[in-house]
Design brief:
- Keywords: Kelch repeat, Repeat.
- InterPro entries: Kelch-typ_b-propeller (IPR015915).
- With 328 residues, the protein is mainly beta.
- It contains 1 helix and 29 strands.
- Helices cover 1% and strands 49% of the residues.
- Strand 6 and strand 7 form a beta hairpin.
- The chain binds zinc ion.
């Protein structure tokens, strides 16, 4: 496997990809599973997994999509657990914007924050529900206090912003019996209440009447928010309980937290660890762009009875898919 840190741009009107030369500081060295979010024309990248042993990062880099310039925002820090596969959003409190990084999986932390949990897996990697706030004006890290019912240590979930100070977390992997990771299908909301407090609520989970639709457990799915009367989340794909792709897609209405299933072709839904972006064409019509990802995990014998997970990247003609969602 090769890791890249190149920048490619998709023109959705022509469907063409183009490669770009970047400027500024050197780009992050192509780790996988980095935290990522956008604000205006900027893309923020934090940490990620290096691809060998249990080497993770926690520096923060910024890419400007107009100037194609990289900037290092934060160097490595001892108070933030080095990790990847968590969630990051940009939220606002009293006129100040913060990067909010939550959960994930990483190497043994340098600093254990007392209000968070750290679960070691059989392979030595550590799952956490650690939260970090980065004040974008002062460029200082804050370890916030949590109130309400926070998620347990989780990785591979989605964290999606639905208002200036509120986000929705769905799914991911938690540590189950025998210290192995198992997928879940819970929904939580988290709200930035002040510059130091995040309030969590658990939305009624899958323990609901059989008539109520609820997606199965998964990780490596993709969710994006489309704005109609109230924000609606669109979810595509992911990997389920038995290591198989879930091959489905759902809408989550964030006023009532009701799920409804939508039907999309398997060439779109049959993937995990992909990206999903909305383009609002009109109030009644949104285009969804699905890019990349991988197929189901296969456990292959690498000799001496040791099995390792492999999955194949999605290939052409299915790498970039465009779907139109109309009203109803
Ligand atoms: Zn490394």
């Amino acid at each position: 496997m090769k890791l890249y840190s190149t920048i490619d741009r998709l023109d959705f009107r022509t469907g063409r990809w183009s490669s770009h030369v970047t400027r500024g500081t050197s780009p992050p060295l192509g780790p996988e599973g980095y935290f990522c979010t956008i604000r205006n024309n900027d893309i923020f990248y934090m940490g990620g997994y290096c691809g060998h042993d249990n080497c993770y990062h926690n520096d923060v880099n910024l890419f400007n999509t107009l100037t194609y310039e990289w900037n290092k925002l934060m160097s490595s820090s001892d108070i933030v657990m080095k990790r990847g596969y968590g969630g990051m959003v940009c939220m606002e409190s009293m006129g100040t914007e913060y990067l909010v990084a939550i959960g994930g999986i990483g190497s043994t932390p340098t600093t254990y924050q007392s209000q968070y949990q750290y679960d070691q897996m059989v392979n030595g990697h550590v799952h956490t529900n650690e939260h970090n706030l980065l004040n974008l004006s002062t460029r200082q890290w804050i370890i916030p206090t949590i109130s309400g019912q926070c998620c347990p240590p989780t990785s591979g979930f989605t964290l999606t912003k639905i208002s200036n100070n509120k986000s929705v977390l769905f799914g991911g992997l938690v540590i189950g019996d025998e210290r192995y990771a198992v997928p879940v299908n819970n929904v939580y909301t988290c709200q930035l209440e002040s510059d130091t407090t995040i309030h969590w609520e658990s939305v009624k989970g899958p323990v609901v009447p059989a008539s109520v639709q609820w997606p199965v457990e998964r990780h490596g799915h993709a969710i994006t928010s489309i704005i109609s009367d109230s924000p609606t989340l669109v979810m595509i794909g992911g990997q389920g309980n038995d290591g198989q792709l879930v091959n489905d897609s759902w809408l989550l209405d964030t006023s009532q937290y009701q799920w409804s299933k939508i039907v999309l072709p398997e060439s779109v839904t049959g993937r995990k660890s992909h990206s999903l972006s909305p383009i609002m064409m009109s109030p009644d019509c949104v285009w969804l762009v699905v890019v990349g990802g991988a197929g189901a995990t296969e456990w292959r014998d690498v000799g001496r009875g040791v099995k390792k997970p492999f999955s194949t990247c999605i290939t052409d003609p299915n790498i970039t898919m465009l779907i139109e969602l109309g009203k109803n």
